[in-house]
Design goal:
By secondary structure, this protein is α/β, with parallel strands linked by helices. Helix content is about 40%, strand content about 15%. It has an 8-stranded mixed β-sheet, sandwiched between helices. The longest helix has 19 residues.
């Protein structure tokens, strides 16, 4: 197994932005899942996508952990978690890991917070523990199948995709340009933080596997799981929900937003006209204030 990046390996500049060593959970598979567990109160379970890691949620952790318990896992293959080369990297198996974390920490009264692949993974996990989910916060994501841009389809090409994603770290590097409307913001420590866990071919395994796990083909092994999720992803529509959407997302566009609004008609929706796919990063303090205000207006009680 490749030796994963650990917290002490991060630069001083990145640790200033992300000042939490975190905790580890040994999964039933024997692999180590890294996660943050900061603050006290009702838990906010933040589930990231590809090619990010818990670093993506740091502004929310900074801004909310004085009042809430922020639980933020790194998926296997991502961030400071183990990066096994022979693990499945299927959506359903990532969801099982999230369920294992919920059970290990005995999380209840959960506010599920999702972005990118975290939507499908987090919602799949939530459907296995539905009584523990009390609120839902959605950033640009899907819990259903939708059209893919050509840029992501390129990453699925057998040889070109492997060379670009694994050899050049192209997907993560290009995301710092394409997933944002503020590329200058990602120079220096911010960009370094996003790229830090993906130093080598082997450490980029999850980035590629996430792309390959998008169930485009009818016989794709994840297709039945995605179809089952799509049939039930509106099951939390009776609970308070917030949708914060970057309108300039190159992948999850307003077609995806319309699906969420159709399934969650009572959701409070903030469509941010000048924000890209990395909503929490691009939106900065405005997004933190939006989430904090909404949480305050939708309390869960003691």
């Amino acid at each position: 197994m490749v030796t994963p990046l650990r917290y002490h390996d991060l630069s001083d500049e990145v640790r200033q932005l992300y000042p939490w060593p975190g905790e580890d959970l040994v999964l039933p598979s024997g692999h180590r899942l890294h996660y943050l567990d900061e603050g006290e109160g009702h838990p906010l379970l933040m589930v990231h996508g590809n090619p990010t890691w818990s670093f993506y949620w740091r502004n929310l952790v900074h801004g909310l952990s004085d009042r809430y318990r922020c639980v933020v896992p790194d998926h296997l293959g991502c961030g400071l978690s183990d990066k096994p080369q022979d693990w499945s990297y299927r959506m359903a198996d990532h969801a099982k890991n999230v369920v294992a974390l919920i059970d290990e920490l005995d999380l209840d009264n959960i506010t599920l917070v999702v972005h990118d692949w975290g939507g499908a993974i987090g919602m799949t996990a939530a459907l296995q523990r539905p009584d523990r989910i009390r609120r839902v916060i959605v950033f640009n994501t899907a819990a259903f199948y939708g059209p893919l841009p050509w840029t992501i389809r390129l990453g699925r090409l057998p040889v070109v995709g492997q060379l670009a994603v694994l050899g050049l770290n192209g997907f993560a590097r290009l995301a710092l340009r394409w997933a944002t409307t503020q590329p200058a913001h990602y120079r220096g420590a911010v960009g370094e933080g996003y790229l830090a866990p993906y130093r080598s071919w082997e450490e980029r395994i999850a980035t590629l596997r996430f792309i390959q796990d998008i169930p485009i083909e009818r016989r794709h092994p994840t297709r039945p799981d995605m179809e089952a999720l799509e049939a039930e992803f509106d099951c939390f529509a009776d609970r308070p929900s917030l949708i914060v959407w970057g309108a300039k997302d190159f992948c999850f566009n307003d077609t995806f937003l319309a699906r969420w609004v159709g399934a969650y008609p009572d959701a409070e929706v903030h469509r941010l006209a000048e924000i890209g796919h990395y909503v929490v990063e691009d939106g900065g303090k405005h997004v933190v204030r939006t989430v904090r205000d909404w949480l305050t207006r939708h309390p869960l009680g003691a």
